[in-house]
Amino acid sequence: MQSLPYECRTEHVMPILIFGAEKYSQFRTLMPGIILSVVLAFAATFISDHHGGPTLLYALLFGMSLNSLIEGSSAKPGIEFTGRTVLRIGVALLGARIGLDQISQLGLNSTLILVLAVIVTIISGVLLARLFGFDKRFGLLTGGSTAICGASAALAISAAMPPSENRERTTLFAVVAVTTLSTMAMILYPPFALWLNMSPEESGFFIGGTIHDVAQVVGAGYSISPEAGDSATVAKLFRVALLVPITLFVTTIFKQTSQNKVKAYLPPLFLIGFIAFTGLSSTGLLSEQIIYQLSELSRWCLVTAIAAVGLKTSLRDVLQVGHQALILVVVETLIIAGIIVASIFLMR
Asked: How does pLDDT run across 155-196, given as a tens digit for each residue?
């Protein structure tokens, strides 16, 4: 008896009935790349949980190490999907862990200082990028990731930019640079704050106002004291909240030339999702358990997406960005740190 063709076998009938033949075909095409990215995300999380270190950086390096193996493979469509769509889902879900009640704890002076520090750092990145021989996009990407929330901001700002030949390579470099510097800051900033005789609240404001990634902020803040950790977390969450207006600004700038002016000024769906989840978190409609689950889902989406982005980019491409790009990120880091330290002493 002649066997049925692959598409007609029993194990494929039910999915086809549910999704439709075309959707099921697309799903099957995407699965190898998605599964590979998820496996790398699990590996990065395992290493981070058991040996310490930044999960996003591990996922990125694991992905880049396998870049040469996926060229021309069936995994490429799924990797592209994960690095684009799953990334946007992760950024949207970030809003679930930010509530307006948390932001209101800062006070007016601290809020204005953080807004000023973020704006000055981003503008400095754009201006210094030209000095170091890069375009404004690269300065906006590194300045935004340094000023707001590190790798997450780099991914969100990059997603808001139109496609370009070097976008993935420069995004990868920004992620590597800010994650590395954030890890170094987590180690160096607590003793620096104690050396400057900062109070626990001042130390927390310094930590939360300067370190790039949320995980490193929490680690550095609570290594000083519980009070410093609480203060650092609130300051950092406010900087994360600034991702909304900054990303919306980036979207508007790069869509000014669009013929459809209405569409040009509409924010992307992932940004609308970010705002919606922030609103839900602020209203109290979401329980703490649901907020925790959404935050974890956001983290997994971002780790999986950065693994996919790593799979698409070779280490050689990243190194071509050059040492001047690293110097640019270091200067941006020193700018935001200098503003926060100066403000602390002025407010005393």
From this structure: 788 877 777 767 777 887 888 788 778 778 877 898 899 899
DSSP string, 115-136: HHHHHHHHHHHHHHHHHTT--H
Using alpha carbons, select from 44, 43, 29 the residue that is nearest to residue 80. Answer: 29
CA atoms within 13 A on the CB side of 203: 27
Please give the C-alpha separations between residue 312 and each of 33, 121, 153, in angstroms, as whole numbers: 11, 29, 19
122-152 pLDDT, tens digit per residue, is 999 999 988 888 888 888 889 988 998 777 7
- Find out whether 78 and 34 touch, Cβ atoms under 8 Å: yes
* Euclidean distance between CA atoms 112 and 171, whole angstroms: 29
Count H helices and E strands in the chain, helices first.
19, 0
Residue spans of alpha helices (H) in 148-268: 151-160, 167-195, 200-210, 214-224, 226-241, 243-254, 261-264
Q: Is the dihedral of CA 267, 268, 272, 277 positive or negative?
A: negative
* pTM listed for this prediction: 0.65
CA distance 116 to 209: 11
Question: pLDDT tens for residues 41-67?
Answer: 999 889 988 887 777 778 878 887 887
